[in-house]
């Protein structure tokens, strides 16, 4: 006898073996020896606090609310007990219960963030060797496709209207005017503006250091006029600490996101089209980058935006990456002011 079975097991035999193994509390992984040295899978309540400490500021802000939902509803469950169908059902629940804001998109963004948050959580679990990748239920759940974006570049006349209303209304028109100028000139994100410090300003070269996605710093040219006003803002409202936050309210307290909400809510009251189209600060980024791309090409627009050349346009993009001088030249053309770093041509 060779011990080799030439007759493959039938479906009935496989099912019978499965039932017996389940009754004994044995899994296929147990038989293969894959789980002999693997610690028990933790519950969501045990693992979420452990992982959350490794998140960056942006990741914590994006995923935090959804992980709180998971911890609230599934906190006492082991992470290998939740099925893909349960995650799908919870995804739809999150979509239906998403806060209906002025810029709502039917809850699709909330549902996508929920799936991304779970995938991030389970990725840590796999990396910690507490679960095999093929058992990751979050990877089996589809992330909702995002609806087409509604943002686009604003016309010059529209941008002028926004600036006019911002500096003639409200309780701090000087701050609002400075914010709009900063975002229009640099196409920076809100986080980049709010993180700006006096020590990030280089008056000689008219450069500022922006810290945005991934806590990465990048140099961005600004006009001499904007630099002058940023320095004056620090002189009159700063606390004297060059490493402290630069943008501040009239009482000296650092700027918060509430100022942006207040600004665009006020602009929407005076300009019906701002409210109807749900204009926000990010539209200024679209406006500036669209103008730069149309007049100076894709490479300069990409550098102006602070986007990496990796994965964008293939290997060629690495060789044609725009220089800081070219970005400064685009800014100079846009503002009509000379810049010390601007290159000719």
Strand and helix map with partners:
Elements: H1 11-23, H2 28-32, H3 44-52, H4 57-74, H5 84-96, H6 108-127, H7 156-166, H8 173-186, H9 190-194, E1 201-202, E2 207-211, E3 217-221, H10 224-237, H11 257-270, H12 272-277, H13 281-296, H14 298-305, H15 316-319, H16 324-335
Antiparallel strand pairs: 1-2, 2-3
Protein name: Site-specific recombinase XerD
GO biological process, one term: DNA recombination
Family: Belongs to the 'phage' integrase family.
What's the overall average pLDDT, rounded?
87
Class by SSE composition: mainly alpha
Q: Any guess at the CATH architecture of the largest domain?
A: Orthogonal Bundle
**What proportion of the residues form beta strands (DSSP E)?**
under 5%
- Tell me the helix content: 40-55%
Total helix count?
16
User: Which strand order does the major sheet show?
Assistant: 1-2-3
The CATH top-level class label of the largest domain? Mainly Alpha
CATH superfamily of the largest domain: Intergrase catalytic core
Number of strands: 3
Largest sheet: 3 strands, antiparallel
- Shape annotation: elongated
| Regions with little confidence, pLDDT below 50 for 5+ residues | none
The CATH topology of the largest domain is: hpI Integrase, Chain A
**Gyration radius, rounded:** 27 Å
Organism: Crossiella cryophila
Family: Belongs to the 'phage' integrase family.
GO molecular function: DNA binding
Protein name: Site-specific recombinase XerD
């Amino acid at each position: 006898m060779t011990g080799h079975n030439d007759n493959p097991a039938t479906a009935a035999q496989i099912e019978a073996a499965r039932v017996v193994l389940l009754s004994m509390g044995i899994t296929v992984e147990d038989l293969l020896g894959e789980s002999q040295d693997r610690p028990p899978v933790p519950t969501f309540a045990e693992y979420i606090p452990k992982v959350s400490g490794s998140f960056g500021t942006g990741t914590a802000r994006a995923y935090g609310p959804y992980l709180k939902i998971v911890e609230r509803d599934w906190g006492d469950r082991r992470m290998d007990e939740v099925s893909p169908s349960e995650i799908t059902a919870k995804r739809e629940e999150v979509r239906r219960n998403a806060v209906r804001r002025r810029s709502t998109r039917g809850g699709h963004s909330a549902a996508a963030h929920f799936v991304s948050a779970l995938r991030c959580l389970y990725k840590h679990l796999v990396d910690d060797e507490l679960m095999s990748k093929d058992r990751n239920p979050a990877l089996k759940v589809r992330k909702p496709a995002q609806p087409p974006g509604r943002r686009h570049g604003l016309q010059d006349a529209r941008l002028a209207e926004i600036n006019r209303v911002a500096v003639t209304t409200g309780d701090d028109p000087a701050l609002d005017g400075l914010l709009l100028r900063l975002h229009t000139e640099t196409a920076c994100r809100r986080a980049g503006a709010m993180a700006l410090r006096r020590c990030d300003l280089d008056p000689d070269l008219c450069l500022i250091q922006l810290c945005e996605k991934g806590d990465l710093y990048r140099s961005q040219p600004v006009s001499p006029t904007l630099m002058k006003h940023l320095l004056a803002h620090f002189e009159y409202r700063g606390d004297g600490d060059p490493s402290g936050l630069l943008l501040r309210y009239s009482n000296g307290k650092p700027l918060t996101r509430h100022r942006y909400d207040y600004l665009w809510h006020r602009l929407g009251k005076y300009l019906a089209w701002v409210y109807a189209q749900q204009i926000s600060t990010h539209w200024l980024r679209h406006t500036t980058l669209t103008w730069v791309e149309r007049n100076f090409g894709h490479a300069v627009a990409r550098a102006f935006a602070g986007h990496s050349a990796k994965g964008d346009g293939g290997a060629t993009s690495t060789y044609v990456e725009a220089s800081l001088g070219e970005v400064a030249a685009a800014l100079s053309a846009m503002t009509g002011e000379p810049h010390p770093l601007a290159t000719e041509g």
